[in-house]
Write a structure and sequence with these properties.
about 240 residues, Serine Threonine Protein Phosphatase 5, Tetratricopeptide repeat, 3 domains, Tetratricopeptide repeat protein, TPR-like_helical_dom_sf
Length: about 240
């Protein structure tokens, strides 16, 4: 029998045969969460916090399940309860920041990312996500600092580089942005968004229609339909 299946059956037997312990409920909730059974995992965590309302990890995991379901307010509520119990763990601050980002509440997200970063300065994901919040707030110089911090762990991250280029454009630095976008498409030759932004920047900032059209046509060939308007208007022979 598959070990994971055996483990799940054993947990189920324990949960239905007697009053489960907090530890058993937590393990069952995490197993369901990892199996993408989000509503089931929430039911386990609900039972758990009914027995132990000071279980910070359960509140945080419950928030993750709601987040995966796209229920941002419920996720924020769970992360907040986790923080009330344990304000020294960066994870619920980071997770709540992510939920705020989904609601485009960039200021609230920034506050949570700052708290998360203060608790653990070594998490590169915090720098990247905080950079996105700063980008949303049009604080481009600060966003660049965070994207550069995120790239220290691994300089070849196309998604981070793409957003770094957007911050460079916001900071009125099209030449550096073009260099960054060229690095993006070197690393990811099917990144249609990068080709599109590269083409638009070549044409609008530098007036280079030949290069711009080449990039825009590439974006269009990769399915980026927004490029069609530019191609039709500027790239017809």
């Amino acid at each position: 029998m598959n070990n994971n299946l055996f483990k799940s059956l054993a947990l189920l037997f324990l949960l239905v045969s007697c009053q489960p312990s907090v530890e058993e409920l937590f393990e069952a909730g995490v197993t369901a969460l990892e199996g993408q059974k989000y509503e089931e995992s929430i039911s386990y965590f609900d039972r758990l916090v009914g027995l132990d309302s000071a279980h910070a990890a359960a509140w945080n995991a419950r928030g993750v399940a709601f987040f995966e379901l796209g229920q941002w307010d419920e996720a924020i509520d769970s992360f907040s309860k986790s923080i009330e119990v344990d304000s020294l763990n960066y994870k619920p601050f980071f997770n709540r920041g992510n939920a705020w980002m989904e609601k485009e509440a960039f200021k609230e997200a920034l506050i949570d990312y700052n708290r998360a970063n203060g608790l653990d300065i070594n998490q590169s994901d915090i720098y990247y996500n905080r950079g996105l919040a700063l980008l949303g707030l049009e604080m481009y110089e600060d966003a660049l600092i965070d994207f550069n911090m995120a790239l220290q762990a691994n300089p070849e991250q196309p998604t981070v580089l793409f957003n770094k280029a957007k911050a460079q454009l916001g900071n009125n630095d099209p030449l550096t942005a073009i260099a960054t976008l060229n690095e993006v498409v070197r690393l990811d030759q099917r990144n249609a968004s990068a080709y599109y932004l590269l083409g638009v920047t070549e044409m609008s900032a530098l007036g280079n229609e030949e290069k711009g059209c080449t990039q825009l046509k590439m974006a269009l060939s990769l399915g980026y339909t927004q490029a069609k308007e530019w191609v039709d208007e500027f790239c017809q022979e």
